[in-house]
Amino acid sequence: MMIQLICAFVLAFLFATAFGKYYIPWLRKQKAGQEIKENGPTWHMSKSGTPTMGGVMFILAVLFVLLTVGFSGMLQGNFVHIFVFLFAAVFGFIGFMDDWEKVKNKRNLGLTAKAKFLLQLAAALCFLFLMRQIGFVSPNLYVPFFNTSILMPEWLYFVLAAFIIVGTVNAVNITDGIDGLAAGTSMPVCLFFVTVTFMWGQEYLELGIFASALLGGLLGFLVYNFNPAQCFMGDTGSLFLGGAIAGLAFAYDMPLILITLGIIYIIETLSDIIQIGYFKLSHGKRVFRMAPFHHHLEMGGWTGHKWKEKEIFLLFTGISLIFAIISFIGVSNRFPM
Questions:
Q1: What is the pLDDT of residue 118?
Q2: What's 51's DSSP letter?
Q3: Are 232 and 298 in contact (CB under 8 A)?
Q4: Where does residue 247 fall: left (phi above 0), alpha (psi -120 to 50 degrees), or beta otherwise?
Q5: What is the C-alpha separation between 257 and 272, in angstroms, rounded?
Q6: Tell me: the pLDDT tens digits for 282-306?
Q7: 10 Å Cβ neighbour count for 93?
Q8: pLDDT band (50, 70, 90) for residue 140
Q9: For the chain, where are the alpha helices, taking DSSP H only?
Q10: Which pTM does this prediction carry?
Q11: 8 Å CB contact between 194 and 208
């Protein structure tokens, strides 16, 4: 098992880095540049025109690994890793349509919020029904740290599950606001699932291969996305990434672990919600200099220190790693000894 997980990581990393050498110049030739929001930090305007849709690098890297390292599982009739990939790919395609609209119209607006929400909700429900049919999802809601489960009515579970999936996908999308941030904060999340696979056993090997491939693919992508970024993952990458993380949490049948495991996503999303809500209630006042929270730090909120993108990357990735360890402790008693 260990060899397969390591191979998945290494192959995905090599694929993403090699593919990026040719893909990024191709994106430049296609003039697939990202337009920067005018209401963002002014110094971000210099990034205008940086190629977007770079998430294709790690998406294809994961697919390559699933068809090579993960092929033996398919021969044995286990397609759970393919299901999770297809689920994430649906979100990636929604993101691609959004990116395409932005690139085509040369403005930082794509699909309407309503259209994206309905498409994401439909994808979430289809995935949940599929995972329920093959036995990887049950209405017994596992509660980490307490090592117990709550039996829920199936309809209520599906409503809650759809909310968690759509929320996770969009939270990861919100986190993708500065160079390397979404990739960096998601790598400890992937590492958590790889470790769980190693501890949990052979039954979850295919999911571990998926998580390990995503980890390697993100690291390979980070070679080009670390500040100063040569490309952005775009909604193509961030929605795929969010779908993959949500899909893994449900495939392992422990979605509530996302509360601690996805702490950075939650902080980023809550800062956005608080900012918008308070702005409306107070008729123009703000809690943060700018939301999401990473922009607040960039602009010297609270302390006056204007955090650089590399500093925010290290801070958020470090926090994500700490909470990945905490999350592992929270589910460790579920592992068979």
A1: 87
A2: B
A3: no
A4: alpha
A5: 22
A6: 988 899 999 999 999 999 988 888 9
A7: 16
A8: confident
A9: 2-29, 56-68, 71-75, 80-105, 113-133, 154-175, 181-200, 205-225, 234-251, 258-261, 263-281, 293-298, 309-331
A10: 0.93
A11: yes
